[in-house]
Design brief:
The structure is a single chain. The chain is of the alpha+beta class. Helices cover 66% and strands 9% of the residues. The chain contains eleven helices and five strands; from the N terminus they run H-H-H-H-H-H-H-H-E-H-E-E-H-H-E-E. Strand 4 and strand 5 form a beta hairpin.
Length: 389
């Protein structure tokens, strides 16, 4: 507003000098007081155009009508009409922009009709009117172009902000997914191996004096299980550090279907009788499906040791279909509490079944977990060979 006020004062000074010189001319129109009043109002329009564009447009239009009525010939202050036309076209309301365009198209013609060129023909007056209309049209076009440009940049800024929010949301989702993956891997590695070690340690302590050979065998199982757990943890830490699975070195490959038999033998060695059968023709499977199958069997057998009771037995059945791999793990123990499989875990429990469902969902499979009709617990899963879309 200070800048506009400065230019308004400059325009007022020029208009005052022009009004004084026109007053001394032999064929002047209007009184000097009226000319100064009109010039002052138009300069005020320039000063306040940014703060109140619509009101200043109406004031400029009313001043122009008064100028015609009072016979105040055009002065340098009429430049304010061009300025206000540009302003409302760029920043004003749509109705004000249209009104300014209509007023600009009429202003030059009305001025030419009110104060025609005495030494020009009718065609000459029309030409002058058309020529003086061009600045009003250019002012409106320039202002409307500025409005369009600002709207375009505002849209770009909004789009950039929206994309930034979407990137942040995607990053949060990716972080949550990574945390869930880490939680699944930690649970599968720690829960299974530690449970085996606890069972063997309890057994070794029970038979330490009566059967030293059995205690020694239990300690060897604890040692091998601990080494396996360390290897799994090293692999997991290597994945976290590098962001990709490594082969060789100190990191071991991910478990697959072929290692399920070793897992079963490990459980048998810990005192859990397991019947293991494979039906169909074994063949290579996608790595995600193989890891999911191994983790499901691992978690199911771990749950049998935790919740099945001392005399529980289990059976593991792998079925190769044409379009998928079927898993069925059953036990004849007491079964897990219903809140672990119905509510998805309570009081920090049930993470194993939650991890199972997440793993199966990632490969596009189905999982069913619950008590058997005759007692015990059953986990069945169907893993498709084609990746999930």
């Amino acid at each position: 507003m200070w800048v506009d006020g400065f230019w308004a004062l400059v325009l007022l000074g020029i208009s005052g000098v022009s009004a004084a010189s026109i007053h001394r001319a032999p064929n002047h129109h209007g009184s000097p007081g009226a000319a100064l009043a009109v010039s002052a109002v138009l300069c005020a329009v320039v000063a306040l155009r940014r703060r109140m564009p619509e009101k200043m447009l109406l004031l400029a239009a009313a001043t122009g009508v008064a100028q015609l009525v009072l016979d105040v010939q055009t002065t340098p202050a009429d430049f304010a009409l061009l300025v206000i036309v540009y302003t409302v076209a760029a920043d004003g309301a749509r109705w004000a922009s249209r009104f300014a365009l209509a007023g600009g198209l009429c202003a030059a013609s009305l001025a030419q009709i009110r104060w025609p060129q005495s030494d020009a023909s009718a065609i000459g007056n029309v030409a002058v009117a058309v020529f003086t209309t061009v600045p009003f049209v250019l002012a409106w076009v320039l202002g409307d172009s500025m409005r369009t440009r600002r709207a375009y940049f505002a849209q770009l800024e909004e789009r950039a902000a929206r994309l930034e929010k979407e990137r942040e949301a995607q990053a949060k989702v990716a972080v949550a997914a990574e945390r869930a993956r880490i939680a699944r891997e930690l649970h599968d590695v720690v829960a299974h191996n530690v449970s085996v070690m606890v069972v063997q340690a309890d057994g070794a302590a029970y038979v330490l004096d009566a059967a030293p050979d059995q205690a020694k065998k239990a300690l060897e199982t604890i040692s091998s299980t601990g080494r396996q757990a360390l290897a799994e943890m090293r692999r997991l830490l290597g994945v976290l550090r590098t962001g990709e699975h490594q082969e060789g070195g100190e990191y071991v490959p991910q478990p697959d279907v072929d290692q399920i038999e070793e897992l079963v033998e490990q459980c048998r060695g810990s005192g859990l009788p397991v019947d293991f059968r494979v039906e169909g023709t074994p063949r290579p499977l996608p790595s995600g499906v193989e890891l999911t199958a191994y983790r499901i069997v691992q978690e199911a057998l771990t749950n049998t040791r935790k919740h099945g009771g001392p005399n529980a037995g289990a059976s593991v059945r792998l079925v190769y279909f044409d379009d998928g791999l079927g898993l069925l793990v059953e036990d004849d123990g007491k079964g897990a509490p219903h809140e672990l499989y119905e509510e998805g875990g309570a009081d920090g429990r049930g993470h194993g079944l939650i991890g199972m469902r997440e793993r199966v969902g990632m490969v596009g499979g189905t999982l069913d977990a619950g008590p058997r009709p005759g007692g015990g617990f059953r986990i069945s899963a169907l893993l498709p060979l084609k990746p999930a879309h």
